[in-house]
Amino acid sequence: MNLEIYKHIYLLGVGGIGMSALARYFNAHGKKVSGYDKSKTLLTEKLEKEGIVIHYKDDVGQIKKEVKEARLTELLVIYTPAIDEKNSEFLFFKEKGVIPLKRSQVLGMITCQSFTIAIAGTHGKTTTATLLTHILKNSQIDCTAFLGGVSKDFDSNLVLAQTGNIVIVEADEYDRSFHHLYPDVAVITSIDEDHLDIYEDKKSLETAFQKFASQVKQKGFLLVQAGVNTEFEKPEDGERMSYSATKKADYYASNIGIRNNKTKFDIGVLDILPGMAYEKKISNLLIDIPGKHNIENVLAASVVACFMGVSCENVNNAISSFKGIKRRFEIHLQSERMTFIDDYAHHPKEVKMTIKAVKKLYKGKKIMVVFQPHLFSRTQDFADEFAESLSLADELILLEIYPAREKPIDGVTSKMLSQKCTIKNEVCSKEELISILQNKDIEVLLTLGAGDISTLVEPIKALYN
Predict the structure, then answer these.
(1) Cα Rg, the chain, nearest whole Å
(2) Lesser CB count within 10 Å: N end or C end of the chain?
(3) Predicted pLDDT of residue 268
(4) How far is CA 307 from the centre of its chain?
């Protein structure tokens, strides 16, 4: 399908992190972009300032007249899985004869004629993709990137190339979205049970990742984290390599330590990949984001960058200047009095890794965690695992479950999760949190979750400033 023919782009769920990147992409390419989202956020406000027309009520009457009257051949409607197919606007377009497309389908169309680097995995996609984008851009290798978070270096979740044909995308496993991608280079950072509303079990999830990996193009490069126990075929006439911060792998991290509250390590190579500019280890890397999982994200981005021809020196220089990603271990306050960190962690393994990283970085200090569970189904499926991970904190506050696309499930509540935790904890609403925090003596505060907990960051900062 030729995307050039469309004059009007309408997005249902335009405020989502992935959808907003598409909105920005089409807006930058001169299309008339508009859409609907149920909530006004800082991100949607930015989109509006960029010229994208958005309304916040499911109401066909608020759709622009020129969109409603557009020829079918000139109108592209894109929707996110978070949109209920009973949504009145979704139904309006279907009745009009428009076939709404999922975000993943459109991303597949955008990338099909490009040299595509796809980052897949149940954790680590956004950090790896954003790091790789930063390294390539700083090494004069131009690229377009669709990111699952807002890069602080580019102040956006979309990075546009001025020249060249390289596209970096996050390959999302939800709803098997990544099966629309046929990359030249693919990274698989992790495969942990998740999205059990889509996948029957871990085996079904692994099979989906195997299909994604099988779609790497001829002469392509597949890079897999060494802890992933799934078997993957080598791309035809291409290469399959491994990386790890903890295991024997083709690319590995060594000499890991802490220096001035930063993580330091070296990258080593077991076997030189023919044609790669990776002929010696990269020494004395320093990153602000703690935890071995983030070392592996840096490792994966560095290996792919070198595969793309970046020198070891440029990799090191780029990583040292990396500012990070909003909501990925974002330190908002740091003083002798207290530290406040916000992170997107929403899976029990991510929660565990983040809390462990904080405890290592701030040894001897009491860690207060505020967690907003994301999805009723995920809370139900992993209640015991969440309880185990959250109990690593010293004290815990649970917010009510953020439903996103889901309806409530009987018996699945934050109170249920609270009762499974083995540390001092309480449950409250978002509105109650600030007054509760006022009466706490906090050394390190860590807010976690993928819902709208981020809207509490500024009120929390105001409380301690």
Answers:
(1) 22
(2) C
(3) 80
(4) 23
Helix, strand and coil in the chain, % to nearest 5: 35, 25, 40
Q: At which residue do the structure tokens 């389908």 appear?
A: 105
Burial class (CB in 10 A: 0-12, 13-18, 19+), 248: exposed
What is the distance between the alpha carbons of residues 320 and 300, in angstroms, rounded to a whole number? 16
DSSP character string of 120-166: E-SSSHHHHHHHHHHHHHHTT---EEEEEEEETTTTEEEE--SS--E
Confidence (pLDDT) at 278: 44
Query: According to the model, what pLDDT value does residue 152 have?
Result: 95
User: Tens of pLDDT along 242-256?
Assistant: 999 988 888 999 889
* Pairing, β 339-343 against β 330-334: antiparallel
Query: What pLDDT was estimated at residue 263?
Result: 87
What does each C-alpha distance from 95 to 98, 99, 278 come to in angstroms? 7, 9, 56
Do the Cβ atoms of 189 and 119 come closer than 8 Å? yes
Q: 303 is written with which tokens? A: 């290996």
Phi and psi at 117, nearest 5°, equal -110, 115
Contact 281, 264 (CB under 8 A): no
Q: Tokens standing for 119? A: 């980052």
- DSSP, collapsed to helix, strand or coil, labels residue 200 as coil
Tokens 């995995």, residue?
121
| Residue (of 243, 237, 239, 102) closest to 181 by Cα position | 102
Sign of the torsion angle spanned by Cα atoms 153, 159, 160, 163: positive
Q: How far apart are CA 4 and CA 8, in angstroms?
A: 11
Q: Can you give the pLDDT at residue 202?
A: 86
Q: What residues of the chain score a pLDDT lower than 50? A: 276-279
Give the C-alpha separation, 298 to 128, whole Å: 6
423: closest CA among 366, 376, 353, 372? 366
d(CA 217, CA 274): 18
- Number of Cβ atoms within 10 Å of the Cβ of 232: 19
Task: Give the up-direction half-sphere exposure of residue 111: CA atoms within 13 A in the CB hemisphere.
Answer: 31
One-letter amino acid at 241 equals M
Rounded Cα distance between 95 and 86, Å, is 12
Q: DSSP for 289-320? A: S-SHHHHHHHHHHHHHHHHTT--HHHHHHHHH
pTM of the model: 0.88
Q: Going by C-beta distance under 8 Å and a sequence separation of 6 or more, which residues neighbour residue 229?
A: none
How far apart (Å, rounded) are the C-alpha atoms in residues 306 and 111? 22
Contact 22/12 with Cβ under 8 angstroms?
A: no
- In sequence order, which residues have a C-beta less than 8 Å from that of residue 434 and are 6 or more positions away? 456, 459, 460, 463
